[in-house]
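In practice, a research group might receive sequence data for several interacting partners and want a quick structural hypothesis before committing to experiments. The following worked case mirrors that situation: the sequences arrive first, and a predicted assembly follows.
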Amino acid sequence: MENVLKLLEGRWKLIILFHLFGGNVMRFSELERAIPAVSQKMLIQQLRQMESDGIVRRIVHHQVPPKVEYGLTDWGQALCPALDALLSWAARREEMAPTTSLPDT
Amino acid sequence: MENVLKLLEGRWKLIILFHLFGGNVMRFSELERAIPAVSQKMLIQQLRQMESDGIVRRIVHHQVPPKVEYGLTDWGQALCPALDALLSWAARREEMAPTTSLPDT
DNA sequence: CAGAATCCGTTATGATACTG
DNA sequence: CAGTATCATAACGGATTCTG
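A structural hypothesis for the assembly, expressed as tokens:
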């Protein structure tokens, strides 16, 4: 498990995933434009890592100029519910009264 | 959202959380023994961060020798479903056939 | 277009020794 | 017991330049 969570580490991976959820397939340059803050190096690095981890699928069209698209694997898509759960956890922050109890025996 | 996810960053945070789920309350030394690979510095650092983020609750018993316990806040407990979803995602890895399609136009 | 290669500063993590 | 302080290193992220 701890090992699986490492697959999601990296500042940009979740951001990339959000763009790819729902079966979206995007070109490298589209992702660059969609995530302006990421550098080329980081974008390709995290895409490649997720590719070799079986989360992202790389689709090469042999033509010139080059065209490479990225999408999610089935397993990658399966991450969606988990991320949704995290989102609703994030949302719950508002509802909860601040809990900072110290018994201080 | 991205901001909320940062609260969970850190090599040991989720590992700590797993030990605290279900309402478990553990002493500092118990956590050290439960997670042998973590250094004292990292353990206290990540506990303190999660404490100030409202995920972990620090319970000080004023006695000698010192006794300090750690548990989850309500909001921290609320993370459980999300972590469960991640666990089942991790589990799904087995079931899924490796998807490495390349159209290769 | 879609990268690869290189240099470099920042952050995260660790080992070790000390303390109320 | 439950930390703190210090030093060292490794991992991460970014800017820039070059290429098939």
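Before designing any experiment, note the following. The CA atoms of residues 24 and 71 of chain B lie 6 Å apart. Residues 2-94 of chain B form a domain with the Arc Repressor Mutant, subunit A fold (CATH 1.10.10.10).
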